[in-house]
Automatic annotation (TrEMBL):
Domain called Alpha-L-rhamnosidase concanavalin-like: residue spans: 312-407
Reaction(s) catalysed by this chain's protein: Hydrolysis of terminal non-reducing alpha-L-rhamnose residues in alpha-L-rhamnosides
A Pfam family it matches: Bac_rhamnosid_N
Name listed for the protein in its UniProt record: alpha-L-rhamnosidase
Residue ranges annotated for the Alpha-L-rhamnosidase C-terminal domain, each copy included: 762-834
Keywords annotated in UniProt: Hydrolase
EC number: 3.2.1.40
Alpha-L-rhamnosidase six-hairpin glycosidase domain location: 413-760
Species the sequence originates in: Microbacterium murale
Catalytic EC class: hydrolase
Domain (Bacterial alpha-L-rhamnosidase N-terminal) ranges: 140-302
Amino acid sequence: MQSTTVTRLRAEYQDDAFGIGTATPRLSWRVEDAGPEWHSDRYELTLERSSGVDSVVVHSPEQLFVPWPFAPLESRERVRLRVRSGSGPDWSAPSEWLDIEAGLLEQGDWVRDLISPATIGGLSDGAPLLFGEADLAAAPVSARLYLTAHGIVEFTINGQRVGDDVFAPGWTAYEKRLRYRSYDIAEHLHAGPNRLQALLGNGWYRGQLVWPQNRSSYGDRLALLAQIEVTYADGTRAIFGTDAGWGAVSSSILFDDFYDGQRRDMRITDSPVGKTIDGVEVRGAASERIVAPSGPPVRVTQTLPAVQLITSPSGRTIVDFGQNLVGWVRLRVSGTAGGEVTVRHAEVLEHGELGVRPLRSALATSTYFLSGRPDEILQPTLTFNGFRYAEISGVPDLSLPDVDALVLGTDLERTGWFESSDARLNRLHDNVVWSTRGNFLAVPTDCPQRDERLGWTGDIQVFAPSATTLFDTAGFLSEWLEDLAAEQKPDGGVPFVIPDVLRDPDPAAAAWSDAATIVPDALHLAYADVGVLERQYASMRAWVEKVRGMVGPDLLWTTGGPFGDWLDPTAPPEDAAQAQADPDVVATAYFVRSSGILARTAAALGRQDDAADYAELERRVRAAFVAAYVDAAGIVRSDCQTVYALAITGDLFETERQREGAGRRLAELVTDAEYRVSTGFVGTPLILDALTMAGREDLAHRMLLTESRPSWLYAVSMGATTIWERWDSMLPDGSINPGTMTSFNHYAYGAVADWMHRCVAGLAPTSPGYRTIEVRPRVTGDLSSASARHLSPYGEIAVAWRLENDTTDLSLSVPYGVTADVWMPGASAPTTVAHGEHEFSSVLSAP
């Protein structure tokens, strides 16, 4: 049995468990190369720590988020861990060793303070450079930097940049949770004096947020906390870092803002040498709110070359990168000292010129004053832009090799792939991936280009299933949910954006605030993480109780907030909230949904009294919905695609006649619309599932494959490389939709990717963590092939099918730990298979 191996041992959500924020991290791994007779019944964990080696055998088949069986870690403790799996008399080969190092776990571990420049670095000033010194008695055998800030920070030691992350420490609910980052800096330090420098940018802390010139949402002073801990060869330790002895000077960055861009004078050095030195003020440690990260940081994830230089009708030079992306333009230029280079960004061209109208007030412009050095590299570091096109002035001899784009985003692992026989669908799926990559930047934002870029709760709740399919978002979204709980109002109200910079005193919006229940549920399904349910349970319960307190005796939620079926395609450009769907129908349907999620969550956590209470609440609200909004024939009030999608997917009926009638009526509406989409943010993630559940997967495919607007493929036909906010963000004549909500990178409508994986390729989880799956492609004859791969917590699952004449052939790869129910076209019952490679074939004419 030694052929069986254990791979990808993880602590919590991390493959690299450095600076982990818990003393008892849960552990997960994969079992691979297991033969058909292998059945894990136990595992052995071996831990190496300074006090010795310890091994524990646990009789359990579990391999996801298993409890830490050893004495808790101490702050800074570094250990090694490995695991092997047992089946009957046999053991697998052991895993590779996983290094785990705890961060600073106790408030008392923080002995350095936040410091702020005394007089410079104000709201109207450029980015300040703070500096200090660490005088080491000898070269260290180990050294750690623990870093956080009010603002964003780039830290250097002896002129060398520390880490490869961007915008550290990220964006959190600053007043309640201030994230820190940990770095191994031994290679940067030497015996004697070491120069420490930190460049502070406004970032989310003090940059514009929400609306023009809304600065200092969290405070008007930038601040830095750096704690350096070194260990010498003799075992002694020393601590250095921010204190009253540091100084501050102005940097080369004259202005920085996420919305408006960055201005930099390359003639100014980023060093205190020769400059007037400002003192610093000590502002305290803030240790009571400092938290370790659970997700990865923002990084440069790839580089894209420029593909075309364009001369616009007005004579301007525009660079096309061929892909709408989020990040930076990098230029290599040679010019005279003081020469000015300007880079303006936009997602689209309008009549051949840079299409900046969708940016609203955001300037999205970086400006540089050259030093006169040859081959000077120009790129921003304290801002980011959403763009495909960049207009560059001040470089008369620009050539393609001199410019490229650095792609930014939270460094998430890709986990989902899709391909079909239709190149348009493949492009659509790629567009969803790119929109996810660009908008999952520190928090799940709505858009990356205009004066907004906020963590809208409605957007992520509709997209969460697709997000968890395409990327490993377990740590990223779990961390965001902790901010949601921290920002939640005492009465359970959930803000519309997280972190909450809108500051609404009584936030409660159907579908938006319901992110409190829907996102944890999606994470649990994708990753089998009961811990996220435990952490969020109080938040989930508080939200449902908030709604229960808002409704009357009839249990209908008629105060569901300002959004409704946001951006219904019939809504006028100036009012995105006008929709065909009755807002009371939408709100009450969500009340049913959140109540049901809470009931199932309580049951999963063993809270039986709560489970019974909320299951009864769900039953009563469903009955109220049917009585008020559904007639005997299944017609739902406001009679539009969205309300049927909500009712069918939520089973908001009492009789089979109503179910069948609603399905027929939805089919009529879709047919009458010539298969075009008539849904906004609320209905779009559900409409194809509703058609499928009604037995009309043929109509679902026709809707998916329609190109006339509004449709998913309309944007593809117009050359889109990301998902648009509006179905017609660009009009057929090449002009930009006049609406104020006109982003060309907005992932909400990309929620269709989840259905493409589940129903086109046919790969769907049916229990948490993909422990069981359903393989059930809806083969209609519209496509001749489709495939999907997914890196589940247990390993890679792959399904591919091909239709030729009357025969559908399907191949399936199942990792150990997963069981699949395979429904071939026309089958009346599934075939159940375990891990291994499987082939299936059925003969049935496609409808």
